[in-house]
Amino acid sequence: MENTPKQFNDTEEFLYALRNAGSKYSLDRIRKMCGLFGDPQKSFPIIHVAGTNGKGSVCAMLERILRGSGCGKVGMFTSPHLLYLGERVQINRHPIEKSEIMSIVDEIRAKLAECGGFDESNRAEYPSFFEYMTLLAFIYFARSGVDCAVVEVGLGGRLDSTNIVLPAASIITSIGLDHIQILGGTVADIAREKAGIIKPEVPVISGWLPAEALAVVRSVAAEKSSPLYESANAFSEDSSLPQTSLRGYYQRRNAAVALQAVRVLRKLAKDGKASKTFDISDESALKCLKDVSWAARWQEIDLKNGARLILDSSHNEEGAKTLDSNLSDLVVELKKQGRANPAISVGVLGRERAVPLFKVIVKYARKIILLEPKQPRALTFEELRECIGECGAEISQMRVEDLYKSDFTCSAVGAGDTIVCTGSIYLAGEVLAALGGKIPDGLQDIPYPKQP
C-alpha cells in the first residue's frame, strides 16, 4: 500500500496517544508482545548499552566500527530522536521508512487485538509508546536480516523494554544522578537499576563509574558470574585513550569503552562463543572511531551569517561536568583568536538538571539566552531565571524559531561569533528543525512515576 502523509499521520496520532499515557515499567507486556511475533530479538546478536550519559555516543561508535569492519547489515536502536521518529530504528545508519513504520505498527495493533488481553481503550494497561517502538525495531531488524544490532536502553535498565534481550555483551557507560524520581535518589540506587541489564555469564564492559556505582556493578556481575571489564583500568592513562571524530575529552572515554567492547567480543568470536561478526581488529576499530557521526554532541555548525553554532545536549549533573571542560577549552580557543566568549542558549527539562548546568554556564557565557523547549516538563522562562543564581552576563529570553532562523542564521550573533546551544536533547531537535525550516514530530518519551 502506498504510504501517504495522511496515512502516516494516523500512525503518528496513535503513537502520540500511547506516549501521552506515559510509560509502564514492567517486562511482562513486552515479553508477551515479542512472543506473538516469534521473539524476533533472538534472531540476531545484540550489544546492549545502558548508562546515564554517553550511551548514545557509544552506540554510534560501535555501529560505525561494525559497519566499517565488514559487517553487512548493522541495526541500531536508540532514543530519543531529534526530528523524525525513524531515526530511532536504523540499519547501516539509514532510518526506517515511514511506510515500514506504518505497516509494522498496524500489524502490531492487529495482532494485539486478535490475541486478547490488550484493550486499546484501557491506556493504563495497554502497551506504551516505547514498548511499541522496541518491538517495531526488533521486527524490522529480524525481517531485514541484520547481522547484528546495537540496542540502547531507554531508561534505567532493569525494567526497560529492551531488557528482554540476551546480548553478546552488556555495556554500562556511566552512572550519575538523573531521573531520580524514577530510578532512585542515590548513585547506588541508579547503579542497581542500570546493572539490571547484566545477564548470567554475559560479559559486561563498564565506563568510568563513581566508586559507589562501581561497587554495585561489581557485586551484580559477580553474583551472575558475568566477567566485568573496567575500561577505567584498561585505559588508565589519558594518552592511551583512542582518538575519535566526536569532540571532547569525554568522547575519548566513550571511544575507549567502545574499543574495550570490541576487544572482549573479538575474543569471544575467536573462541567460538560469539558471532564471527565480532572478530574485529583494533586497527579497523581505531580507524572507524575517527569517522563517527552523532548529532547534537558538541556538533559544530557554520551559520550563513558567518557565526558558528555548537549544538550540545548536556542535560544533567554529570553532563554539566563535560560541558565545563568543553566550554573551558572553547574559551581558550576563542581568546587565542582574539574573539569574545560565546553566547549560550539553554533550555532544560527539570530544575534538578538546570541548577548544575547554570553553575557552569555563568562561568563562560558573555550572554545567556533562555529558551523553552516544547515539552511538557520544560522549565518556563521564570523558572529558568530562578535557577541561574549570581551572573554577570546579559540574560534574555526568546522563542527557538525567533533565535534560530530557517535560512541557517542566528539572530543573536554575527560574523565571527560563537553561540553554544545546550540543555535538553529535545531542544537540540527543535533547533535543527528551526534551522532547516522543519517541524519536529514531537513523538518523544515522557518519564513516569518511580519504577516498582
Structure, explained:
The protein is of the alpha/beta class and 452 residues long. It folds into 2 domains: 5-289, Mur-like, catalytic domain (UDP-N-acetylmuramoyl-L-alanine:D-glutamate ligase, 3-Layer(aba) Sandwich); 299-435, Protein-Tyrosine Phosphatase, Chain A (Alpha-Beta Complex). The protein is 42% helix and 13% strand. The chain has helices at 5-20, 28-36, 55-68, 98-115, 129-144, 180-183, 187-194, 211-223, 231-234, 249-270, 282-289, 317-336, 351-364, 381-388, 400-403, 425-435, and strands spanning 46-50, 74-77, 89-91, 94-95, 148-152, 169-172, 204-206, 228-230, 299-302, 308-311, 343-347, 367-370, 394-397, 404-405, 409-410, 418-423. It has an 8-stranded mixed β-sheet, with helices on both faces. Residues 447-452 have low confidence and may be disordered.
